[in-house]
Amino acid sequence: MNSVPDLGHGVGLRREHFGRVLEGPTRVDWFEVISENFMGKGGRPLHVLERVRRDYPVALHGVSLSIGSTDPLDRDYLDRLRELADRVEPAWVSDHLCWTGVGGHNAHDLLPLPYTEEALEHVVARVEAVQEHLGRRIALENVSTYLHFAGSTLPEWEFLAEVAHRADCGILLDVNNVYVSAVNHGFDPEKYLAAVPADRVWQVHLAGHTDCGSHLLDTHSRRVCDEVWGLYRFATRRIGAVASLIEWDEEIPDWDTLEAESLRARAVRQEA
Questions:
Q1: Which of 174, 151, 153, 185 is nearest to 220 (CA)?
Q2: How confident is the model at residue 3 (pLDDT cuts 50, 70, 90)?
C-alpha cells in the first residue's frame, strides 16, 4: 500500500494565478510548485507559497536534479532543496527520471536515459544518495521522449519500476508523457500503464500536448485530450485513488479554465 496521502485533485501554482489563489477559496484540493522557483531566501514567490501552504497541501516538483547525469550530484542544489522542503513541509518532493546536462553544462531539457542495467545501477545509487541528503524519499517522473538509445536492453516501464523498487522511491506517473512517447515510438500506452507498480505511484500528472505531424510534443499548452483522459481512466482503475494534477505551463489560461480542467479530472476519477 502507498504510504503517501491521496491529496485529491490539484493544479500547478503559476505566477499568473497568484492573485486569484490568494483571494481564495478555490475548488482545487492542492498545489504543486516548481522547486527551483522558490529556492531564494525571500521575495514574493516564497511569500506567496507560504501563504498558500497555510490553506492547502503542497508538493515540490523539480526540474534540475539531473538524476541520470554522470556529473557529481550538485550538493549546493540539494542543500537549497532541503532547506525549502524543511520550510514548506511538502507532501512529497519529486523530479524527473532523466538527465539535464553533463560536464557542467545545462541543456535546459529533460533528456532520456539509455535503459540498461548499467544506467539502472547508476540512477539507483544517485537516488539513494539524494534521499539520504534530503532526509526524505522522493518520487521520479517518466518524461516524454522523442528518440531512444539503440543500446537500451529494457523497456522504459520496466526501467522505471526497477528504479522505484531498488531505490525505494515513488513514481510520479505522467499519463500524458506515456501517451506522447507511445505515439512517438509506436508502443501500446496501456501496456506501459499496466506494468507500472501501483503501490509505487504517489501522484499522476495530466497535461496537453501539441501534434507536430511527425510526432507529438509535450508542451503543457492546452487541455488534456480525449485519448489521455481515456488512459487516465485506465490508470485509475488499476492504480486506485492517488493525487492527480493538471499541468499547464504555456499559453496559460485564466483561472476558471484551469480550475475546470481539475474538476474534470475529479469527475473522470469518480467515474472510473
A1: 174
A2: confident
